[in-house]
């Protein structure tokens, strides 16, 4: 049933100040380890993840990452369901080199399906736990699992749905740490140094 009567909201006057800033998504919030975890999460309910088909080549995947400025691709089927993830590190990592060697192909000729992390091997953070967490918890989690990224799923409706993404590179940027190359060791070392000095 649709409610027939709605009350008007109160207004706030700008008369008491001469400076009002405007939110700018290109300049994300400055983070500290005590910031709410959601401040560091890419909300996939509002931002569309960059996706790719499992049949595309690694060369095509690399081009997609470069053009879209991302280091992680969601691999989805024709119904839009998640099949796996492909990161920039996967493009020339150990799995790609082994697969190319065993199949007598060059690495760029491999398909996304050959090297992606498939759905059964993915691990997720639960939305409720993230809602109670701080950025320091997310850093500790990424570090403990030696990961650059973490996906957040919401299962409150009974069906798992990916709703968020954490990236160690993005966290480092938001903490004001310059990240030259998102290599696990240096990124986490820099983040941990920033946390320690905070």
UniProtKB/TrEMBL annotation:
The keyword Transcription does not apply. SUPFAM superfamilies: CBS-domain pair. The keyword Ubl conjugation does not apply. Signal peptide: none annotated. Keywords: CBS domain. This is CBS domain-containing protein. Residues 41-102 form the CBS domain. InterPro entries: CBS_dom, CBS_dom_sf. Gene3D superfamilies: CBS-domain. It comes from the Bacteria. It comes from Limnobacter parvus.
């Amino acid at each position: 049933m649709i409610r027939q009567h709605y009350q008007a909201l109160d207004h706030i006057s700008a008369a008491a100040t001469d400076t009002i800033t405007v939110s700018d998504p290109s300049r994300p919030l400055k983070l500290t380890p005590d910031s709410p975890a959601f401040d560091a999460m890419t909300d996939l309910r509002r931002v569309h993840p960059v996706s790719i088909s499992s049949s595309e080549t690694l060369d095509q995947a690399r081009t997609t990452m470069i053009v879209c400025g991302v280091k992680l691709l969601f691999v989805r089927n024709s119904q839009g369901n998640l099949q796996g993830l492909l990161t920039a590190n996967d493009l020339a990592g150990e799995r790609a080199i082994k697969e190319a060697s065993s199949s007598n192909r060059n690495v760029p000729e491999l398909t996304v399906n050959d090297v992606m992390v498939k759905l059964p091997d993915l691990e997720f953070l639960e939305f409720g736990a993230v809602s109670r967490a701080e950025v320091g918890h997310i850093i500790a989690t990424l570090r403990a699992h030696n990961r650059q990224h973490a996906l957040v799923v919401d299962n409150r409706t009974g069906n798992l749905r990916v709703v968020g993404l954490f990236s160690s590179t993005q966290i480092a940027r938001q903490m004001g740490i310059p990240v030259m190359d998102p290599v696990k060791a240096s990124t986490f070392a820099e983040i941990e140094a920033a946390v320690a000095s905070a």
